[in-house]
Amino acid sequence: xxxxxxxxxxxxxxxxxxxxxxxxxxxxxxxxxxxxxxxxxxxxxxxxxxxxxxxxxxxxxxxxxxxxxxxxxxxxxxxxxxxxxxxxxxxxxxxxxxxxxxxxxxxxxxxxxxxxxxxxxxxxxxxxxxxxxxxxxxxxxxxxxxxxxxxxxxxxxxxxxxxxxxxxxxxxxxxxxxxxxxxxxxxxxxxxxxxxxxxxxxxxxxxxxxxxxxxxxxxxxxxxxxxxxxxxxxxxxxxxxxxxxxxxxxxxxxxxxxxxxxxxxxxxxxxxxxxxxxxxxxxxxxxxxxxxxxxxxxxxxxxxxxxxxxxx
Amino acid sequence: xxxxxxxxxxxxxxxxxxxxxxxxxxxxxxxxxxxxxxxxxxxxxxxxxxxxxxxxxxxxxxxxxxxxxxxxxxxxxxxxxxxxxxxxxxxxxxxxxxxxxxxxxxxxxxxxxxxxxxxxxxxxxxxxxxxxxxxxxxxxxxxxxxxxxxxxxxxxxxxxxxxxxxxxxxxxxxxxxxxxxxxxxxxxxxxxxxxxxxxxxxxxxxxxxxxxxxxxxxxxxxxxxxxxxxxxxxxxxxxxxxxxxxxxxxxxxxxxxxxxxxxxxxxxxxxxxxxxxxxxxxxxxx
Lengths: 312, 286
Fold this sequence. Notes:
B: MetI-like fold
């Protein structure tokens, strides 16, 4: 076998073939080496858990080995679960508010930093810094700060839902503005200077230039950032767990305990690992619903904003 | 005559912007400064005088740091060592194997390659909660629940973004360079390691940075996969400290948090350029 490929005459003959032929033939022999490790890990770390997860969402079980297939019952239970519905609306509200705030502020900062102000690099460094701190640590830093302020008024971030909500918004803005700013700066630097120059010569004001030249040109960045911050908002877990952990709790008349600042990811986690969970199947079906939600949201958003991008 | 006017207006606009940015900048640093000042305070003052400087009777010196080292019946250096080794090992595994796979996928046009590639793209939109339960059970069953084997789980779950980025880059490299190497007698393995790999360096750095930022700060995956009583990474350690019942020594917690973010900030200041470039490159992910 190796004789064939080692023979230089054979290789030269293949020059007539489409690009890559002298390379591809011998490569295929080594496919197990190049693809093997990743494929094996990918099956263990993603493919198998994903398939098993879909199957188990239609089962009733506490331990995987005695899972019993029951069809779509878990999904009905999940959709009727008041805590899950509450977490959904809470998460949706959080995601919308945070997407708007983060993107408007990040764009404003990026715009200011591309105007040739002295010290731009220093500001950029500082604004991006919170991204390197993990969600759990961030949550505890901010819970100390909020409690330091709120304790003067005899209350705490764990006492009221609105404190928890706005606290998490402030935390996420602090963390994510720097990240989105980097993407916006890259987009803004790609806007052709002569276009802005031409608008200025034609007598356009700063605002007109911003609205009619700059923003349409950075539409791809706006797409990416909106998409990223929306899915980040929906998938938020660490910060939610560390800042409030779902508190304050409200016990409903029928005995269900609604954790008022609990978001979807945390709700799924709590359903899986709370001591009184009747069936982990319900939790897994919530996870599937969550997955479908996050995946479609991303796709809709992408399709919608793509239409408004400037065609190059 | 008119020329001076718009110029001075422009200058004023810039001054206003600088001032606003400087103010935001200070607000941005305040939370970290609050951690610093509180890590030198006695516990009782952290809640009542959060924003005061640690002067007079509040000053605890380095007692919080000494206490923090063994806080929560778990030595801090141990969790730092686990965090570091998991991060470094995972990054090495991911960089090596995903770049190899990505090169193969980009160069060989087969059904298997396409299937793997699209699965990788798909995996990027799947939230961790979807697979968290089954993944932790699978990892348990295959004994991947130690700090030395958990990188395999990271390789599996994190392969999507890395392969996506590497494939995109490999496709932009002219294939003629590799063909020349092949004609000169390089086998695929030598072609990859001595021709392709050096060219991948910029993407390697971007992917490496993104993976470091992810693995180092990740809480849920190691918390579910590892045996918590024995192996704790820094995020797990801090979460278990605060989550445990009873009163928590906030001064010591802040000292611990400070010790855990100082290496991160040093790392950031050293490789700032690469980190910002890496983030901009990785922004395409879903």
